[in-house]
Q: What sequence folds into this?
């Protein structure tokens, strides 16, 4: 029986094939080629392009509030296309008025909704004849919300840097800012408020319309006011 | 005993070529017979002669390793492909393992890729005309018999399953150890041992059968 050693010897005795001289020359020529390192500049250019694009996208998002609007869930009264349709409108202003309109209307809607809720609670308490102390809480909140409502109506003429959330406006109003023409005490009751509105109408005060709107926002059309 | 007498160093069992016997000359460094790793390192640094020396050491055995696993037409292409990969990877080469293990791993992977590209193992059973010198009519009987046995052995090697043939050729042609073969083909050493055992058994069986046939 052939042993492993004999098998190895038999194998070594086989014809010893070698690569051809032409093949040797090709390989040695390839080995003699100078080292060619791959160009690195495409990688740098690609990295720089990514950085520039990222900065551009972030800057664009920060500058254009419409983009932030598009990502937020809040509804907008006037679409951004309206501002784009009137490129000549107030070019000297900072933020475009169309976008401010949307924030002002949002404020107004939310304020009116809150006022209605507070007014219904206030009316119910008055009907039950509860103490003024418990009634002042919703009244206070109505008082805090109403400045915000009047501010929202005047927002078209103002330039506000960034839209503040409703809670902050209410808190700011609560610290003492009271822009309404009718005093807080007058606004507690329908009759007193109506009387205040009447006085404003007689004086032909332009703020009377705002007070009327606020009155309607709180009491609706149920309580008539002979102003 | 004279304490100042010089005592020669014991001779080496196998003196490396080019090195004078110990005791007569100072030990030379291995610069005269650099290792594969050193040659590759020098080639990395730009020494073309180092590559030529490395190529000279392995060209024959690597060529036969490839040639006995694939047809003649593809063998030269694959041989060139293997060396091209070695040349291109010289910047990344690190002498963590033996160079021959590194070289044969490239060769093995290149062969596997070639098999995959073809879709199936090429038919290597038929020994091609230029593989083994056919016995001539004027040759003495013994030489003719030996030539026939060689032809049979070559055919038997090519008929082996891929893994067994690979292990056998890495062992016989490349001179790799079991552990090195395991590194090349990425299987456990015990598996390599089994593959080698099966390969040798089959080849021996073929040779014995050939001998019996010729004897009868």
A:
């Amino acid at each position: 029986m052939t042993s492993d050693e004999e098998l190895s010897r038999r194998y070594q005795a086989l014809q010893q094939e070698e690569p051809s001289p032409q093949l040797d020359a090709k390989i040695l020529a390839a080995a003699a080629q100078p080292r060619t390192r791959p160009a690195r500049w495409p990688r740098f250019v690609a990295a720089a392009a990514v950085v520039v694009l990222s900065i551009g996208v972030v800057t664009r998002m920060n500058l254009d509030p419409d983009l932030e609007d598009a990502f937020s869930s809040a509804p907008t009264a006037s679409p951004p296309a309206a501002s784009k349709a009137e490129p000549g409108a107030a070019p000297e202003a900072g933020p475009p008025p169309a976008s401010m309109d949307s924030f002002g209307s949002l404020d107004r809607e939310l304020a009116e909704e809150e006022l209605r809720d507070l007014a219904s609670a206030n009316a119910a308490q008055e009907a039950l004849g509860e103490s003024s102390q418990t009634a002042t809480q919703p009244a206070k909140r109505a008082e805090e919300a109403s400045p915000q409502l009047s501010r929202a109506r005047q927002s078209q003429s103002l330039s506000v840097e960034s839209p503040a959330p409703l809670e902050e406006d209410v808190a700011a109003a609560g610290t003492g800012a009271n822009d309404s023409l009718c005093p807080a005490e007058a606004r507690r009751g329908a009759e007193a408020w109506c009387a205040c509105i009447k006085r404003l109408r007689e004086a032909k005060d332009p703020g009377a319309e705002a007070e009327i709107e606020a009155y309607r926002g709180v009491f609706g059309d149920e309580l008539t006011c002979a102003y | 005993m004279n304490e100042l007498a010089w005592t020669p160093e014991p001779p080496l069992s196998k003196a490396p070529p080019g090195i004078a016997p110990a005791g007569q000359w100072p030990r030379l460094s291995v610069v005269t017979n650099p290792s594969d790793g050193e040659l590759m390192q020098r080639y990395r640094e730009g020494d073309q002669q180092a590559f030529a020396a490395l190529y000279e050491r392995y060209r024959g055995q690597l060529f036969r390793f490839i040639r006995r696993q694939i047809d003649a037409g593809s063998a030269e292409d694959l041989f060139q492909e293997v060396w091209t990969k070695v040349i291109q990877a010289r910047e990344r080469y690190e002498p963590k393992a033996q160079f021959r293990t590194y070289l044969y791993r490239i060769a093995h992977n290149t062969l596997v890729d070639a098999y995959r590209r073809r879709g199936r193992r090429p038919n290597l059973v038929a020994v091609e005309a230029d593989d083994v010198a056919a016995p001539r009519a004027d040759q003495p009987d013994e030489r003719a018999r030996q030539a026939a046995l060689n032809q049979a052995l070559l055919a038997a090697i090519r008929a082996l399953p891929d893994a067994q043939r690979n292990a056998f050729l890495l062992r016989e042609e490349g001179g790799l150890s079991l552990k090195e073969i395991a590194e090349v083909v990425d299987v456990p050493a015990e598996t390599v041992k089994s593959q080698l055992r099966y390969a040798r058994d089959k080849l021996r069986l073929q040779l014995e059968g050939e001998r019996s046939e010729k004897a009868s």
